[in-house]
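> example.struct
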């Protein structure tokens, strides 16, 4: 079973009210623990008058660093539920901070767990989450007589063409999912009689953002 690798492309903020207590969840990307702690410190200053600043963060491709804090709430009622929301979404390089303004009514341990979880989920719902995928980027050079067949195969398999250059030949800049490249290359060569020329593939990581292909040239 393939394990998804997701992260935050654009952070977001969500809010819930539970028995007059206000829970504000802020989700932001963080590529290192230092970045995560800077986000936390900034939010502590911004919401200096809040009752609690509970948080969780996950750093590293393989979740090598995970931290959470209840910040004075009963043990395991705030930080851990926030962390569980992040891991449940297969996220890494992310911090979630849930700020609570106490409304005067105790929620109990179960109520706190539900409130912090729901707040974190609302924050994620307001963020842009991307799934990172391995791919290979390359060019396909072909004659004008073959380009229609190649473009048809690419479209049928939902393979994005990043750019097209028309000179005496046609050059297509294409991004293939890494695991599908060998079979699709064979299909293209068969359809075009072995004439297309493929450049050396460059292994990349990419994601789909708002219907557009994003090549990730840095760790996020």
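> example.seq
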């Amino acid at each position: 079973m393939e394990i998804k690798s997701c992260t935050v492309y654009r952070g977001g903020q969500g809010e819930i009210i539970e028995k007059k207590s206000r829970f504000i969840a802020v989700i932001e990307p963080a590529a290192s623990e230092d970045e995560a702690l800077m986000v936390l410190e900034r939010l502590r200053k911004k919401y200096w008058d809040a009752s609690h600043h509970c948080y969780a963060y996950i750093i590293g491709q393989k979740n090598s660093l995970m931290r959470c804090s209840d910040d004075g709430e009963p043990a395991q009622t705030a930080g851990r539920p926030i962390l569980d929301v992040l891991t449940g979404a297969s996220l890494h390089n992310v911090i979630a901070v849930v700020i609570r303004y106490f409304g005067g009514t105790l929620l109990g341990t179960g109520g706190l767990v539900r409130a912090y979880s729901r707040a974190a989920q609302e924050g994620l719902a307001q963020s842009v989450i991307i799934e990172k995928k391995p791919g290979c980027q390359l060019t396909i050079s072909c004659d004008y007589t073959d380009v229609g067949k190649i473009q048809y195969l690419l479209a049928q398999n939902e393979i994005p063409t990043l750019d097209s250059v028309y000179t005496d030949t046609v050059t297509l800049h294409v991004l293939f999912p890494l695991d599908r490249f060998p079979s699709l290359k064979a299909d293209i060569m068969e359809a075009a009689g072995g004439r297309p020329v493929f450049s050396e593939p460059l292994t990349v990581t990419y994601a789909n953002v708002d219907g557009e292909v994003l090549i990730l040239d840095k760790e996020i």
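> remarks
The chain has five helices and 13 strands.
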